[in-house]
Design brief:
The chain is mainly alpha-helical and 556 residues long. It is 64% helix and 4% strand. The protein has 13 helices and six strands. The strands form two sheets. The protein has a three-stranded antiparallel sheet, with no helix packed on it. A three-stranded mixed sheet has the order 2-6-3. The relative contact order is 0.05. Belongs to the MIEAP family.
């Protein structure tokens, strides 16, 4: 191939091709048409000779490359050129003569590739056949291991079953021995009973009817007490109904205190009749009946229905939570309206209501403890040796929650508020304005102590870290302040879980700037009747004496 290439490089036709093209280009304008055509044909003939030599060199080069080399180059570059560039017959003959070796080379390469593929498939099949026995052997060993493990597991389970059978046999023997001993003891008891039956048993026969009669008498006494309570309730309701029907409306304009005084007179008559009937029916068990002062105001009196004990704890809890929520949303706002007529500062009003709520819970819990002690003393003689004594005490308390002396608790709360240094204000204002609110909170707190577990309010102190789990900030708070300035409403807790969130006011730096030395507060004497004007402002000056400084933290 190298010799042919050297001959082509030194051939006259290849060397004179460039010179002829240059001469033709220079003489093209002066030559005639025939002369130009002759020049062009001469160049084509010379180029054809060069191409024939190049194809010979191409064939030799492809043969030197072997079966696989140069195939892609010929396919991608030479074949498209041959299809588009040469259309004349003479050139076609030359191409056919030169292309045949290339086609033979392509055919040989295809045959070679197919033979290589067949050899590869055959080698793969031989390797699979060789690896199949080893795979079968591995499967056999694995199945043998599984069989051995199953055998060991079955042996272990068999041993466990045998051990369990032995234990059951031992238990059966012990039970048989116990049964034999029981039969022997029963036979001995029968023999003793038969011996004792021969003795006179008049005394024993006389004791049994006495026990039955005493039980019937206790049951009859309880029924009579319930009947007396219900009859007193009925008579009180009938009397109040007759009074309301006999009372005619006045033609003139009524004063602002008319409806409130009328409601208080009705509640006073009802409470008086109920307390009188209960003191009559429970004279043996209750030594002190409820006091009925002229200023007694009962916010919500619940009838002592016998079905009260049957009410589930969940239903009572839901009702009390609803009452507590109503007290926050309605009764608290009413109390604020009353106090705002006398006090300008909203902070002082909210502090007064919060302290009243805390004191009411504290006093109600103390009253519940004393009430439970009295119930225990009363029920002890009739439940001696019984296992359900605590259940009986709880049922009695739930059934007789209306025996709670709420007015006495209201008086105690007002006394505690009078000596609290945080809410000292001018003497023209009296805490008797909050009697209805305090009485409602006391009744709610007293009833919450009868739940299982009881509900209580969370401890709160000014300056404590704000807890989002217990309180929500009021609308006028600084939402970036970390400390509580003062509390608006306490949080309701069940053990350590928050049932209802309270409300607190947070202000950054306000707690330290408003701290002032604690002054001695002036105690307020509490009279049964609170003289007030239209808005609860006292028109009669009352004597006040200095009292010692008390701890300002909330009591629980």
């Amino acid at each position: 191939m190298a010799e042919n290439l050297k001959k082509l490089a030194q051939s006259e036709s290849f060397l004179s091709l460039q010179d002829k093209v240059c001469f033709w280009a220079n003489d093209y304008q002066t030559n005639s048409c025939d002369q130009n055509l002759n020049c062009c044909i001469e160049l084509i003939e010379q180029v054809a000779k060069v191409q024939a030599q190049l194809f010979a060199i191409l064939t030799a080069t492809a043969q030197e490359g072997g079966h696989n080399e140069g195939v892609e180059t010929i396919k991608s570059r030479l074949l498209p050129l041959l299809q588009t560039s040469f259309s004349s017959l003479g050139v076609g003959k030359i191409i056919q003569t030169e292309i045949r070796p290339i086609q033979d080379f392509q055919l040989r390469s295809k045959n070679r590739q197919s033979s290589l593929d067949q050899e590869q498939q055959q080698s793969d099949g031989d390797s699979f056949i060789e690896s199949q026995p080893t795979q079968v052997q591995d499967d056999l060993t694995e199945s043998g291991k599984n069989l051995e493990g199953t055998k060991n597991g079955s042996a272990i389970s068999l041993l466990a079953a045998e051990e369990e059978i032995n234990q059951l046999k031992k238990q059966l023997k012990s039970l048989q021995a116990q049964e034999d001993a029981r039969h022997k003891t029963s036979e001995n008891r029968r023999a003793e009973i038969s011996r004792t039956d021969r003795r006179p048993s008049g005394k024993r026969n006389s004791e049994r009817p006495q026990d039955v009669v005493s039980n019937y008498e206790k049951h009859l006494k309880n029924l009579k007490d319930e009947i007396a309570v219900l009859s007193a309730e009925k008579s009180g309701l009938q009397a109040s109904h007759r009074q309301t029907r006999s009372r005619s409306p006045s033609p003139g304009p009524r004063g602002p205190r008319g409806p409130r005084g009328r409601r208080r007179s009705r509640s006073h008559s009802r409470s008086h009749s109920r307390s009188h009937s209960r003191s009559h029916s429970h004279s043996n068990s209750h030594s002190n009946s409820r006091s009925n002062s002229p200023c007694t105001t009962v916010a919500k009196i619940r009838s002592p229905s016998p079905n009260r004990s049957k009410m589930s704890s969940v239903a009572r809890k839901a009702a009390l939570l609803s009452r507590f929520s109503d007290a926050y949303s309605q009764a608290r706002l009413d109390a604020q309206c009353l106090l705002r007529r006398c006090i300008d500062r909203a902070e002082t009003v909210q502090r007064i209501i919060y302290i009243a709520t805390v004191e009411a819970f504290h006093i109600a819990k103390m009253a519940f403890r004393h009430f439970k002690i009295r119930v225990r003393k009363m029920l002890t003689p009739s439940h001696v040796g019984s296992n359900d004594f605590e259940t009986a005490v709880s049922d009695y308390i739930v059934c007789h929650l209306d025996l709670y002396d709420s007015q006495s608790s209201v008086n105690d709360v007002i006394r505690a508020m009078n000596v609290n240094p945080k809410i000292s204000f001018p003497p023209e204002v009296d805490f008797c304005l909050l009697t209805d609110f305090i009485q409602e909170i006391c009744c709610i707190a007293f009833a919450m102590q009868s739940l299982e577990p009881p509900l209580d309010i969370a401890f709160g102190a000014d300056g404590e870290v704000f807890n989002e789990a217990k309180y929500r900030r009021s609308y006028d708070s600084d939402f970036t302040a970390p400390l509580v300035f003062y509390h608006v409403w306490p949080a309701l807790m069940e053990n350590d879980c928050v049932i209802m969130k309270g409300e607190a006011v947070t202000k950054r730096g306000a707690f330290w700037t408003t701290v002032r030395p604690v002054m001695r507060c002036r105690s307020r004497s509490l009279s049964p009747i609170c003289p007030r004007s239209r808005f609860g402002i006292s028109t009669v000056s009352r004597s006040r004496s200095p009292s010692p400084i008390r701890c300002t933290f909330a009591r629980y």
